[in-house]
Design a protein that fits this description.
Layout lengths: L12 H4 L1 H10 L3 E5 L5 E4 L1 H7 L3 H12 L5 H13 L1 E9 L5 E12 L5 E9 L1 H23 L16 E2 L5 E2 L1 H8 L10 H7 L6
Antiparallel strand pairs: 1-2, 1-5, 3-4, 4-5, 6-7
Amino acid sequence: MVPFKIPQVSSFEFPQNESLYGLLFQNSLDGLMLTAPDGSILDANPAACRILGRTREEILSAGRQGLMDSSDPRLAVLIAERQRTGRAHGELRARRKDGTLFPAEISSVVFQGPDGQLRTCIIFRDVTERRAIEAERERLIEQLQDALGRVKSLSGLLPICASCRRIRDKQNSWHNLETYIRNHTEADFTHGICPDCRRQLYPETIR
């Protein structure tokens, strides 16, 4: 006895809409599988075959143990959640025919068929590309945060001597202007002489 009310599929409505259900099943972009709570697979749509790289017969033969990474601790959590509430949603590692694993977003619900047997419907999709985009976004955010952490800036009012042009810091120590700016920004200096100072200091170089 499960602690939730199991939805029933009416034996009257199902045959009446069988052609519509068949079209939805065959043409869904997401993988769809009709399964049993024990992990056996009763049917799989073309999208499931494409995503898993298997034929329908191979999917039915593999069962849940052959399609999902049993070492993924999230698998037991999702199964327990479905047993408790009748439904579950999360991400698991699925296995293609060649053995490669990929992240799959999975939704599953338990229902009672017209014959009174418990069945489960599983909808899944490959989220490899989404995870790659998210990982790249996280990498760029980390790079930006690192860059911002290394940027130094000056703001507010700087107490500067009107005569010698030295700047007073928060500890009331006075520093050369160039030294202060080097210590508080990413800027550095390259030295030259402006035209006015050149005329005053080195008039002989003016022609």
